[in-house]
């Protein structure tokens, strides 16, 4: 009986070892947030509106990103405050990606609720996306300005979704 129990325990242990050893986890790519930002900029070309760096103090006050949450962070916004555009790309500190994602989601919700003051920006702000791949998290409120002012509300909303999706696709391309 003791031998059977020992054999069962041994098989269980070996099975567990084989199982954990057999699972390959792909290592997260080592990409600078600047490299990702360059690809996002390129996705819009001349229609990329952010032209000013978001300093660390503003990353903290507007996005809730204190320096202990990340190892790398970059953000840009337009110098002209009439445009709501913001791009923030973060490489979270070890074990802090959930906190970064939560902070950026909160910033998204705050942006949406504060945009009621500027109704013209509502469709763009509503299209804002927070995306994440492992320890990389991004906030995208970005897109080419509207050029056809005769579009329906639904068409404008769809256009803004498509515009934000350009940034999401550029970000996602690093993790495929």
Distance separating the two termini: 52 Å
Largest sheet: 5 strands, antiparallel
Mean pLDDT: 86
User: What is the 3D form?
Assistant: globular
Number of separate domains: 1
Give, in order, the helices and strands.
Answer: HHEHEEHHEEH
Count of alpha and pi helical runs: 6
Output the structural class. Answer: alpha+beta
Oligomer: single chain
Describe the structure.
This protein is an alpha+beta fold and 176 residues long. The chain has one domain. It is built from six helices and five strands; from the N terminus they run ααβαββααββα. It has a five-stranded antiparallel β-sheet with strand order 1-2-3-5-4, sandwiched between helices. Helix 2 runs antiparallel to helix 6 (153-172). The longest helix has 21 residues, at 2-22. The model is unreliable at 1-25 (pLDDT under 50).
Question: Secondary-structure blueprint of this entry?
Answer:
Elements: H1 2-22, H2 33-44, E1 52-53, H3 56-63, E2 70-77, E3 86-92, H4 97-114, H5 122-126, E4 129-133, E5 136-141, H6 153-172
Antiparallel strand pairs: 1-2, 2-3, 3-5, 4-5
In short:
The chain is 48% helix and 16% strand. The chain has 176 residues and is an alpha+beta fold. It is globular, with a radius of gyration of 22 Å.
């Amino acid at each position: 009986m003791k031998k059977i129990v020992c054999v069962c325990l041994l098989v269980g242990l070996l099975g567990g070892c084989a199982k954990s050893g057999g699972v390959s986890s792909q290592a997260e790519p080592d990409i600078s947030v600047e490299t990702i930002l360059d690809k996002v900029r390129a996705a819009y070309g001349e229609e990329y509106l952010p032209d000013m760096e978001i300093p660390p103090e503003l990353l903290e006050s507007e996005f809730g990103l204190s320096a202990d949450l990340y190892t790398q962070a970059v953000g840009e916004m337009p110098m002209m405050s009439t445009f709501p555009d913001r791009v923030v790309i973060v490489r979270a500190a070890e074990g802090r990606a959930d906190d970064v994602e939560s902070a950026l989601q909160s910033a998204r919700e705050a942006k949406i609720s504060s945009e009621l003051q500027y109704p013209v920006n509502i469709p763009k702000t509503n299209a804002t996306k927070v995306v994440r791949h492992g320890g990389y998290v991004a906030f995208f409120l970005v897109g080419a300005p509207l050029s056809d002012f005769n579009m329906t509300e639904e068409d404008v909303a769809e256009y803004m979704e498509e515009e934000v999706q350009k940034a999401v696709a550029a970000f996602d391309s690093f993790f495929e």
